[in-house]
Amino acid sequence: MGDVYNSIVYPPKSKDRPGSVLTVEEEAATRKFLENVNKWRIANSMVELPWASAVKFLMARKFNVERALMLYQQHEIMRIREGLKYFDSSSEPLRKELAQGKFTILPSKDPNGATLALFNLFLHEPGQVSHQTVLQCVVYQLDIALEEIETQRNGLVFIYNMSNSKYSNFDYDLSQKMLTLLKGCYPARLKKVLIVTAPLWFKAPFKVLRLFVREKLRDRVFTVNLTQLLLHVEPSSLPSELGGSLNYSHQTWMKACQTIAEEKGGELLTMTHSTTQSRSPAASSSPIHLPEQELLGISNGLEETLRFDEDCEDDITEPIASCTSVSSQVNGKLSEHVDAVSLVDKITDVPVSIECMVGEESPASLDVFDSVIDEEGMSLDEFVTYVRTTTRNGLFDQYQETNRYTDVLCYDHTRVILSRDDNDGDTDYINANFVDGYKQKNAFISCQGPLPRTYTDMWQMVWEQRVCVIVMTTRTVERGRTKCGQYWPLEPSTVLDCGHYRINCDSIENYQDFILTELTLTNTRTGEKRSVSHFAFSSWPDYGTPESALSMLQFLQCVRERQAEMTAELIGWTGHPLGPPIVVHCSAGIGRTGTFCTLDIAIRKFEDTEKIDIKRTVDCIRGMRAFSIQMPDQYVFCHLAFLEYVLNMGYVEEIDLTGFDEDIQD
Question: Mind listing the pLDDT tens digit for each residue in 205-254?
Fold first, then answer.
């Protein structure tokens, strides 16, 4: 298409005619639309909507006046309620947000002529920018792109690039707002949404989010890897980071945006001018009333369900729901099944190879792959049948058989041995055991939650085993009882001294189900410093299991990703490519701790062999850490959580567990 940044088609300067030739019927529809809209705008002391802007709303709804008015109403509600009434693209923080290229319009088209909009998630830092600024960045560029007649005619393809992104980049509420904007609040035909290289922690909530989207939109949303992306968009239309050959400059696009905005002035859709421009200075302080009865004769409540015509094949939009989190709704839907997202790709946890640098010897066994976890097990179909026919009661009975040995606390053959020279108590004991992962010797250290008298032992173990990640699956206090001591500093820039170990709190990130604290561990005797990431999972009830595995699966994936990042940066590591042991603890270090380890092992084994055997995995773990999996509900949870994993990942489209909960015993 050439240099699209210099080829946007502008309508004539007169606002009385559109930029493309309309039929008599289309012009009549435009006049009727403007009559309704401008009646409301004048009543609210706003300038009249230009003809060219009206055409955009009508073209997005194939000149159906009623439906175009509904779209305009939702457009105004969104812009007013999200606080996007006035902004200046040259002022901060919007100028910085526009400049970094987090969101951009590519100078190319898809095979059907649709404009390509790209959002790069890895550039998004939720704690550093507001939703309002990000949405301003998006709509400013979309408004400019929509000046091109071809974009109005052929629509928009939204590429949500998750390559190189981390869980900390993801903002659920912002993602929902952008989807809300595109699916029912913006006058552009949304042809397709392409979610590129989505990791597990996104796929799971996304499948639930699909429940709240109309079927026509669900059918046009795809999660794809880079190879599959090329089935939707030609390589020549994609930048190199997405597997294409397109040379483009976001800075050039920004200059084009500035030029067009200056030339078009108040005729643009953008909030800078037409949407909320006051007709008089006195009116500037007056509140803008949402479009209600005087515009469409319908309520402006965001919970209203407006039925659009079903015969418009291009229309995959719907009126907006509230632009706030749907977490409360989602929590009630976690166990529901939606059709598997097409063409899902498996998780990638670590780089294909990690360079092993010469340095300090790893504390792991010389054969770091010599795990007791084998490759045997059932196929997925066999496992589903097994769970269904065994039933919940059958798994309870099986657990009781597995739980027959109750006289060993901390096995000698797997216990972690502290250095006596380093230990102030002149003992090498800590209540902690090495636990193998799948094809990984000593993948975990399962231990008790430390109390004040054992804080120093805990940090000595972390130091000596070169631990990068600590996973805590309990809260410090539950049901009025202390479950674990506060063995790490609780506030940023605070310090805790334990023996000759100093722990600095560098940062704290709060997520819905866990808290991530980044720490610096210093050996005050040597002055050496190391980074440690502390994950505190808060959504697991004591002596029970979560209602859904979704939060645990997301949490597990975040732990994996952080461990991979820190291992890649670990100087002198010559052990297993997956890194040093991950310390996992709850209170006793057996129940929730064992469940976490079991899930990780089962998933890794299935990814490698497509085989499952939860019972054998639990037996192996118990041979290393006594009592692992403390309650029968936790044993059942491991089975159901694995099924939820394969369902969310698209390995199966549905799972029939009819009869699984029949005849439940109290």
Answer: 666 555 545 555 656 788 888 888 988 899 999 999 999 999 989 999 99
Q: Looking at the predicted structure, is the pLDDT value of residue 196 above 80? A: yes
Is the omega angle on the peptide bond into residue 93 within 30 degrees of 0, that is, cis? yes
* Beta-sheet strand order (sheet of 529-537): 432-437, 440-447, 582-585, 469-472, 529-537, 514-523, 501-510, 495-498
CATH H-level, domain 14-331: superfamily: CRAL-TRIO lipid binding domain (3.40.525.10)
**pLDDT-derived band of residue 149, with 50, 70 and 90 as boundaries?**
confident
Beta bridge partners of residue 522, listed in sequence order: 502, 529
Residues making up the chain, counted from first to last: 666
Answer yes or no: are the C-beta atoms of 467 and 476 closer than 8 Å: no
What are the helix and strand counts (H, E) for the chain?
18, 15
Q: What angle do CA 656, 513, 136 make, to 5 degrees?
A: 105
What DSSP element (H or E) covers 186?
none
Hey, where are the domains in the chain? 14-331, 380-648
Q: Is the pLDDT of residue 284 over 60?
A: no
Q: Which residues of 197-234 are buried (b: 16+ CB within 10 A; e: fewer)?
A: bbbbbbbbbbbbbeebbeebbbeebbbbbbebbbebbe
Contact 373, 642 (CB under 8 A): no
Q: Which of 187, 189, 183 is nearest to 215 (CA)?
A: 183
Instruction: Quote the tokens at residue 269.
Output: 């859709």
Between the alpha carbon of residue 156 and those of residues 22, 49, 111, 153, the distances in Å are 21, 23, 12, 9
pTM (2 d.p.): 0.55
For the chain, the average pLDDT equals 78
H, E, C per residue of 55-98: HHHHHHCCCCHHHHHHHHHHHHHHHHHCCCCCCCCCCCCHHHHH
Query: Which residue do the tokens 């159901």 mark?
Result: 640
Catalytic residue, chosen from 323, 586, 597, 638, is: 586
Residues 6+ apart with CB under 8 A from 458: 430, 447, 450, 487, 498
Catalytic residue check, 505? no
Does the domain at 380-648 match CATH 3.90.190.10? Answer given as yes
What pLDDT sits at residue 443? 97
